[in-house]
Amino acid sequence: MPPIQYIVEGGRRLSGTIEPSGNKNSALPIIAAALLTEHPVTLTNVPRIRDTETLVELCRSVGASAEWTERNTLQIHAKEIRAADLDPALCARIRASILLAGPLLARCGEVALPPPGGDVIGRRRLDTHFLAFEQLGATVTATHRLEFRASKLKGADVFLDEPSVTATENALVAAVAARGTTYLRNAASEPHVQDLANFLIALGAKIEGVGTNTIIVHGPATLGSTSFAIQPDHIEVGSLIGLAAVTRSPLRIARAGVEHLRSIRMGFERLGIVCGIEGDDLVVPSNQTMKIHDDFGGHVPKLEDQPWPAFPADLMSIAIVTATQCDGVILMHEKMFESRMFFVDNLIAMGGRIVLCDPHRAIVAGPSRLRGAPMNSPDIRAGMAMLLAAVCANGTSTINNADQIERGYERIDERLNALGAKIKRIPARS
Ligand SMILES: CC(=O)N[C@H]1[C@@H](OP(=O)(O)OP(=O)(O)OC[C@H]2O[C@@H](n3ccc(=O)[nH]c3=O)[C@H](O)[C@@H]2O)O[C@H](CO)[C@@H](O)[C@@H]1O
Ligand SMILES: C=C(OP(=O)(O)O)C(=O)O
């Protein structure tokens, strides 16, 4: 596939209504977990993005049938599956290939996975996955590939060494197949972890504590068939709030899943951006103060990410771009990933007033007038953040490697153009 480039004519006001896609990070573990049951599963509101397409190919390669019956509806039937050798190139494309470990181990008693890929945003440890699988009775060998074996998975009282999202998801799926009760303590509780748990419950699993940091699973479950709708993507909603703010545009984000937006709204409020709620829609007015709130006593405020329910790491890049358009000074502290902030060089080249203090901290002083520039998209969220910068900048920007953006955001050029943006995708979509 040829690399994708966006050419963006900036400085335009946007307006209108946009609906977020289904959550990428819900769809991925749920597609993988559909391999746990031998009955058919229908998933709706699945984002049709590069990451889900890659995982669907991997599911087919182990013997499941997986068909898109409508643009965002996926039917998966894993009547019989085999612990086949998985294509290392496909696994290396996505972080979520590691999510096949839980269901394949449960179904086949063994699985060998090439190392997963995903965003290059710092070290991405797998130790928490290994810890959880071992406590559930599996043996793990990690060499050039990851081998998991378990003749029988057994329920256990597992304390995760950190609330890793994908490790919690893998452990949750394995625990559903394990004999006995499992406690997953220090578990991640992100909306996508909740979505996966609700999907497993819909299949017949017995799970308590969904949305908390102690998940209790009574296994083994007899699983059936289900039809399940993926929840809206709160990270996409956050990206759209940033877009509305930096372009000073009124946007309505319809069916936004407002119950999961408190910490996100609070983060943007610190930047002087206040959203209204109307039913399940989020309304971003154009007349924002865009004035950064100092801490009590006039001290420089900070915005930092942490595991859920705090402000999400995947919105840090968007928040940095947004802060360049706000009045005041703020410390942005990315606590979780070591390399996510390096993209700010692109913003500095565009005229952003940012000091990158170290790999985890950047000081942003705004507002600054951004100028269009050529850029490269290093990862999904930095790519989307640069798209926001390009849409708000004076002049034309070129974003190379926009394939990265399309790993996570469905038809984003078309959807933003419908609001008034001017993004040309090369090659054009047929
Ligand atoms: C497919 C998928 O769902 N990917 C998401 C998943 O990745 P993933 O599951 O890979 O991320 P993890 O939750 O394992 O950890 C992310 C990083 O945060 C660090 N960490 C984690 C917990 C903690 O308390 N302290 C800490 O420093 C980890 O060491 C790691 O460097 O969760 C990340 C964190 O929300 C998101 O960025 C990814 O989009
Ligand atoms: C880091 C991300 O994705 P992945 O974990 O799939 O690389 C992301 O969604 O921002």
Q: How would you explain this protein's 3D organization?
A:
The protein has 430 residues and is of the alpha+beta class. It folds into two domains: 5-21 and 232-426, Alpha-beta prism (UDP-n-acetylglucosamine1-carboxyvinyl-transferase, Chain); 24-229, Enolpyruvate transferase domain (UDP-n-acetylglucosamine1-carboxyvinyl-transferase, Chain, Alpha-beta prism). The chain has 14 helices and 23 strands. The strands form six sheets. A four-stranded mixed beta sheet has the order 21-22-1-23. Helix 12 links the parallel strand 21 and strand 22 (396-400). The structure holds uridine-diphosphate-N-acetylglucosamine (UD1) and phosphoenolpyruvate (PEP). Phosphoenolpyruvate binds at residues 25, 94-96, 118-119, 121, 314, 380-381, 408.
Topology of helices and strands:
Elements lengths: L4 E5 L6 E3 L5 H10 L6 E5 L5 H12 L3 E6 L2 E5 L10 H6 L7 H8 L1 E4 L13 H9 L3 E4 L3 E4 L7 E3 L5 H13 L2 E6 L5 H13 L2 E3 L5 E6 L6 E4 L4 H13 L4 E3 L8 H9 L5 E3 L2 E4 L17 E3 L11 H8 L4 E6 L10 H6 L4 E5 L2 E6 L7 E3 L3 H13 L3 E5 L2 H4 L5 H6 L4 E5 L4
Parallel strand pairs: 2-14, 3-13, 9-10, 17-18, 21-22
Antiparallel strand pairs: 1-22, 1-23, 3-5, 4-5, 6-8, 7-8, 10-12, 11-12, 14-16, 15-16, 18-20, 19-20
Helix pairs in contact: 1-2, 1-7, 4-6, 5-6, 6-7, 8-10, 8-12, 10-12
Bound molecules: uridine-diphosphate-N-acetylglucosamine and phosphoenolpyruvate (PEP).
Phosphoenolpyruvate (PEP) binds next to helix 12.
